[in-house]
Design goal:
This protein has 660 residues and is α/β, with parallel strands linked by helices. Helix content is 65%, strand content 8%. Strand 4 and strand 5 form a beta hairpin.
């Protein structure tokens, strides 16, 4: 059963994502912090909650030391400004107090710095724990989303969203707790000190300065928001194009498109360059405006203090104190602008994450879903109808059964719906009508984890993780030991190849397995399926991308995998399914013919026509339809695969015309 979620759930964030454009910035910030609060105060982690409490105590202690610094500065100045001594001993008495006060001033600054650093260090674990939990939650949610969602998104852009959102979450957590909260506390303390040590006029001027500063910062930051969004969009676009181009490295080489790809990437980088320059320029204007506002406020209160000293209402030390306090206030006031800009930018960065979290999984477990119980493994499709979108049906009332331990093959032209059957069986999509059962259990009524745990898949295009061969085989069952991994490799007839490599099972396979040939990748896929040992097996075009010699070797391994298992074979090349217990011929989303290989040949219909066409092609020395030879270590050339598909589809159409 799926594990329970932390308090920050997808539906809650979905509400924020939908209303983000309408609610005020402060309200949105408050909503975001409210969503983050359970991660900053995790109920299950008493140690982290203790750190939060100590952090708050240290925060107030640090600000108390900060407020003491100007007072010690004032008292030392006033002590020095008092009357000159008449004797040498008098000098000692006069200097004793200023020296002590100066030492106290230095001590207060040390306490202020040390306590602030200790506070930040203690809270770092809390902040990064929150970042980790939220990032993991987002990553897990991405895996919960449907295949449809991932097919419609570009992987490079999606990973960039996750990366920036992770950084944005860390920024918000650290800025709110370690910067904004101390800034507010210090600002309040400064106003209280001004009211007590001076009068209301000083507090009024400082308050006005802060309000004007905050208003200017808000307006300027809002102006910069669109510039920042443009920079992020161009960054995502450039990264997406780079990832897409590098993932299709061989295709770029096939068509000599390096110049074209470089030009596309450079256009995106030019847009990023322009947006980034605008970002830095606007930041310069913002900083200049803030400096002018602050300096005006500083000059105003210092002039007021000079006038009060002349009138005898304040001492010379008060002039030093107000200067030190305003200079000291500059730091949090300057951080106020920085904090706002960073939080606004972080909010922008995590908007995309909120949108992803707001996506509801298309396929979910029923509330009363139970684990699948496999007794024999009989698979049944009962009047199954399905459409990916709109009213265009891909499957139009498909019904058939794969008895326990038997093999049923599905053949037909491209677009007939063959691979759709395997996606429905794995429940990547739900049927539009009808149902699919395993041992009489509707797959929509069982948990997805147990369903997929009972089915093994050997696909046409095996994509491996950029890790070792052992890792990719062990992916079939993560707790398998080395001996089990090696036994699976032997059964898949790849153990000899692995041991011949310098690093053996520790050999890295490269991005998507590019360092291995098509046949080697297929054997790895077979090995991990053997290791998984599922009662039900799906072979989806498992040999169509291989040459004839490799196909025969792989077919032997596949026969071993399928032995004693309920097996659904989806194939283009008919020679690979002649031993199937039953063959179904799909055409236009319906079962056009069904029966054994011999019976279908005797019927003289679609299957027989395609069989004869393939045999004629072999006799003429052509490659079998649907199985171009490997080009390089990984995949066939696109033009060859396209030509083969056209030939095969034409064969089905030809046969259909003759039968009609």
């Amino acid at each position: 059963m799926p594990q329970s979620r932390p308090p920050l759930s997808a539906p809650a964030l979905s509400t924020e994502a939908r209303t983000a454009a309408r609610i005020p910035a402060l309200a949105k910030l408050a909503a975001t912090f409210s969503a983050l609060l359970p991660y900053l105060w995790p109920a299950e982690r008493a140690d982290l909650k203790a750190r939060v409490m100590v952090t708050l105590v240290l925060l107030f202690a640090s600000k108390a030391a900060t407020m003491a610094v100007p007072f010690f500065f004032k008292w030392a100045t006033d002590a020095l400004a008092d009357g000159a001594p008449t004797t040498d001993s008098g000098w000692a008495l006069v200097l004793a107090a200023p020296v002590a006060l100066t030492l106290a001033y230095g001590g207060a600054r040390i306490v202020m710095a040390v306590v602030a650093q200790l506070r930040d260090g203690l809270f770092a674990k809390v902040a990064l724990h929150a970042v980790r939990k939220l990032a993991s939650e987002t990553f897990r949610h991405m895996h919960d989303l449907s295949l449809r969602f991932h097919l419609e998104r570009k992987t490079g852009g999606l990973t960039r969203v996750l990366e920036r959102a992770r950084n944005g979450i860390e920024t918000i957590v650290r800025m709110l707790v370690l910067q904004l909260a101390p800034t507010v506390v210090e600002l309040v303390m400064v106003l209280v000190v001004l009211l007590v040590a001076f009068d209301w006029r000083y507090a009024a001027v400082v308050t006005a300065t802060v309000l004007v500063y905050a208003a200017f910062t808000y307006k300027a930051s809002e102006w910069r928001l669109n510039i920042r969004r443009e920079m992020n969009d161009s960054d995502t676009e450039a990264n997406t194009k780079a990832v897409d181009s590098l993932l299709n490295f061989e295709t770029v080489k096939y068509f000599g498109a390096e110049t074209w790809e470089n030009a596309r990437y450079d256009r995106s980088m030019a847009r990023y360059e322009t947006a980034t320059v605008q970002t830095y320029t606007s930041l310069a204007w913002l900083n200049a405006g803030q400096a002018v506002i602050y300096t005006a406020g500083l000059a105003a209160v210092m002039v007021m203090c000079v006038l009060d000293i002349k009138a005898g209402r304040q001492s010379v030390g008060s002039f030093v104190m107000i200067n030190a306090m305003m200079i000291q206030l500059y730091v949090p006031l300057n951080f106020l602008g920085f904090i706002y800009r960073e939080i606004k930018q972080a909010m922008l960065d995590i908007e995309a994450m909120f949108a992803v979290l707001g996506q509801k999984p298309e396929i979910t477990d029923a509330p009363d879903a139970l684990p699948l119980v496999v007794n024999g493994g009989t698979v049944r499709f009962e009047d199954v109808r399905f459409s990916y979108e709109g009213e265009r049906e891909i499957l139009k009332g498909i019904s058939f059964e794969v008895p326990a331990g038997r093999t049923v093959a599905i053949v037909g032209p491209s677009g007939a719906g063959k691979s759709t059957l395997s996606r429905l069986l794995f429940r990547f999509y739900d049927v539009s009508a009808g149902r699919i059962t395993i041992d009489g259990q509707d797959i929509r009524a069982v948990t997805q984890q147990s369903l997929r745990g009972a089915i093994g898949m050997v696909p046409q295009d095996t994509v491996l993780f950029n890790d070792t061969i052992a890792y990719n085989i062990r992916y079939g069952r993560q707790d398998a030991g080395e001996a089990e991994v090696e036994e699976a490799a032997r059964m898949a007839q790849i153990d000899g190849f692995i041991r011949a490599t310098p690093k053996g099972y520790r050999t890295e396979v490269g991005e998507r397995g590019l360092k291995l040939s098509g046949g080697e990748k297929q054997r790895v896929a077979i090995a991990r399926t053997l290791l998984k040992a599922p009662p039900i097996l799906v072979l989806d075009e498992a040999t169509s991308a291989l040459d004839s010699h490799t196909e025969r070797e792989i077919q032997e391994a596949l026969d071993k995998v399928a032995a004693g298992r309920t097996t659904l074979v989806i194939a283009h090349r008919l020679s690979t399914v002649v031993e199937a217990d039953e063959i179904l011929v799909l055409s236009a989303g319906r079962v056009a013919e069904r029966g054994s290989h011999a019976a279908l040949l005797a019927a003289g219909g679609l299957y027989a026509a395609l069989w004869n066409r393939q045999k004629q092609a072999e006799a003429a020395g052509e490659r079998d339809p649907g199985s171009p030879e490997d080009i390089g270590p990984t995949a066939p050339a696109p033009d060859e695969r396209d030509r083969t598909g056209r030939e095969e589809d034409a064969g089905f159409r030809e046969a259909g015309d003759r039968v009609a």
